[in-house]
């Protein structure tokens, strides 16, 4: 969480309380503010602003969006064109517009406002969408997690019209890059209903903070009210909650003791599979503390992803649902919840219905694309097995926590030999490896063509097509880039030692596992010849 989230005021230390159609909403989250932009925004973030044309695009993050007009030295007649996206345009109420201002509903989730600046004093314009003040006969929302760039399930889900909104439980990308966050945002703009997300650990891979994510989607910790229920997003990207995050939760629980609540976050408090398969918050003392905090606080449901499977467990009278089957590789067999899915949740008075919707992932092509200088050479699995020297060996890698992962027998082809197939590489060139889910990783010349010192440490760089005698596509991680050191262990120290500047483990927060790219589709040689 950054300093923006610690602010509790919008103007000179004043906490603004917004009264909307009988509902009171305490503004705990700060405004997202661009110093060149006239308006502060509460309940959303400015994702694009063009000063010359006085045009802005706002990403909505709930059902109560507020613009605060800050005094500026401009002509009052200056018009601002504001596009609000990811908004529910049903039952829309807009408060505070002047006679010269107008709005237009462009589609189900996009609103256009024409606003004017005010040089003398601030004022508030509120955009209120949807029935938000009392519990109705029922409403339904969809939950999906861990899509990690595999977009087909999500692209289909945003077409859904039988739900009121969608919650995404994080790991919306594989690598947290600006490009992939932008891809997710583009898909979401086509949604029939609003999508509210919480960040996952993969979404901060490149920056090791939520700043980039928040530039696209607003605060990582926020809440919104819908039909008498409070939905609370908590940031668990670092496998724990920050002190500020705990204070945020404590404040909301204290302010709204009687309102039924839903908490959604990426990592579960506890792994439902038990400690032998621990894939949850690392600090178990904190997990116990949070469970105690939310018990007897009218928390009806806690949603999380991170574990790539489905589970519904009741603990301390609270429904805990893990829904991580949105596209990334599954962690369990189908009979234990390891199936691709999203989850439908229906709330009726004093009743919750939780239903996983089973999905079938299309089989990925087993062709590899070798690209150099605009030429695309396609290599099939049959080609790899019949036309190139085969390498085989045991190997594993160390993850960011120092644990060893994916030990087994790998079979594949030297990446150097594949590069030679299309003319080889120069020392100044880079091999860019891209997965079908959009993740990219760069490998420099000395990693692909290692000298004796590097080869002793890292072994050969290999495109593996088989793991423990399972071939792609049945080996769902493959194709995969792996290292074959003689000791069968590619450690974080090995990665750091053999990573050129700006690459691999030389990038903050990276581990040896980040070099073992899954789902490889493209090998692209870049740079001048």
Topology summary:
Blueprint: H1 3-6, E1 17-20, E2 23-26, E3 39-42, E4 44-50, E5 55-60, E6 64-69, E7 79-85, E8 93-95, E9 102-107, E10 110-116, E11 124-128, E12 139-144, H2 151-157, E13 165-168, H3 178-189, E14 195-197, H4 211-217, E15 222-226, E16 229-233, H5 243-255, E17 261-264, H6 284-294, E18 299-304, E19 310-315, E20 318-323, E21 341-348, E22 351-358, E23 368-372, E24 375-379, H7 381-387, E25 391-398, E26 404-414, H8 415-421, E27 430-435, E28 440-444, H9 445-448, H10 452-458, E29 460-467, E30 470-471, E31 480-484, H11 492-498, E32 520-526
Helix pairs in contact: 3-4
Defining key terms:
six-stranded mixed sheet, disordered N terminus, 32 strands, 529 residues, alpha+beta, five-stranded mixed sheet, Sulfite Oxidase, Chain A, domain 2, Purple Acid Phosphatase, chain A, domain 2
Task: Describe the protein in words.
- The protein is built from eleven helices and 32 strands.
- The protein has 529 residues and is of the alpha+beta class.
- The protein folds into three domains: 3-128; 139-358, Metallo-dependent phosphatases (Purple Acid Phosphatase, chain A, domain 2), CATH 3.60.21; 368-526, Alpha-Beta Complex (Sulfite Oxidase, Chain A, domain 2).
- β29 (460-467) and β30 form a beta hairpin.
- α3 packs parallel to α4 (211-217).
- The chain is globular.
- The protein starts with a helix and ends with a strand.
- The model is unreliable at 1-36 (pLDDT under 50).
